[in-house]
Amino acid sequence: MGVATRLSEPLDSAPIDAFATDAPEGGKEDALSTLACLVAADMEACNRTIVARMDSEVELIPRLAAHIVAAGGKRLRPLLTLASARLCGYAGDRHVSLAACVEFIHTATLLHDDVVDESVLRRGLTSANAVFGNKASVLVGDFLFARAFQLMVADGSLQVLGILSHAAATIAEGEVLQLATQNDLSTTEARYLDVIRGKTAALFAAACEVGGVVAVRPRAEQQALFDYGMNLGIAFQLVDDLLDYSADQATLGKTVGDDFREGKVTLPVLLAYQAGGAAARAFWKRTIEASEQTDDDLAHALALIADSGAIQETLERAANFAAKAQSALGIFPPSVIRTTLHRVADYTLSRVR
Questions:
Q1: Calpha distance 8→46 (Å, rounded)
Q2: In this structure, are residues 135 and 114 in contact, taking their beta carbons and an 8 Å threshold?
Q3: Helices (H), 215-290
Q4: At what angle do helices 219-243 and 267-275 cross, to 10 degrees?
Q5: Which homologous superfamily is 28-325 in?
Q6: Model pTM?
Q7: What is the mean pLDDT of the chain?
Q8: Domain coordinates in residue numbering, the chain
Q9: Is 152 exposed, middle or buried (0-12, 13-18, 19+ CB in 10 A)?
Q10: Which percentage of the chain shows pLDDT scores above 90?
Q11: According to the model, what pLDDT value does residue 122 have?
Q12: For position 253, what pLDDT does the model report?
């Protein structure tokens, strides 16, 4: 498996010196591009692993898997695994297959989520379930989960297996908890945060933590990476939830108002409900709890959320979690990767226009 060392020389795999102290100039929107550049060779190897492991003699499997991969996405989660390992000075290649494992887990959950949510768009394109049907999407999602576990086992580390398998179970728990809170305006903010910790942030945290594990770094550094990923994931999902009530469809990559139509109780809705008067509360009870909606209700929901200040409050909550993520990186010495990961937290917030 190789011996992890802290490098003093630039990494051959990174076009930019990953251990320089100054990051390249650029705005928040450039953070992911910079991160991808820093681990470009690693990401290429990860992509090759993904393509190879998506292959199957059952022709529908690679077709359907390729459909969702072709829809794009920033590959943020595998990038976090690769960058975390390099941040810790790791010089081996275990992080490449584990990054692919993380992406398979994520993609499998997307396939399942779109079936549960009856989504017709994913990242601006027709969702896999809309093209291939619900049964095929669920089964190919199962296949990708199986591939992920094969990669975990092949890595040979019980600690890595424990981290990633726990994350997979936590994601499922988060999705079930979201289902349990659907249409329930009595859901507390704490309960809502439990949902997004499970369904989104758990994989961010695991993706980062395994980078420190393969590098054989002290437990304090592994915990710092977990904390960075967990808080980044919460901030990311908070922004996603507010975008459903503030973005245009092209920006969002899915149909605006999907959460509203599905009766999902997200923080913008909770805040608007709590801040509203009798008429506003009656509206939310009818549309969210009773699922009685008319064609004009989404526009009214958007207006209520905007007037209540829920968008700004949600963004402030996200900013607090992003700041916690950035603070967690303080245990690591200055480097361009650390600076770029810091900027990734800023980028998460900058998605709100």
A1: 24
A2: no
A3: 219-243, 249-252, 258-261, 267-275, 278-284
A4: 60
A5: Farnesyl Diphosphate Synthase (1.10.600.10)
A6: 0.89
A7: 88
A8: 28-325
A9: buried
A10: 76
A11: 66
A12: 56
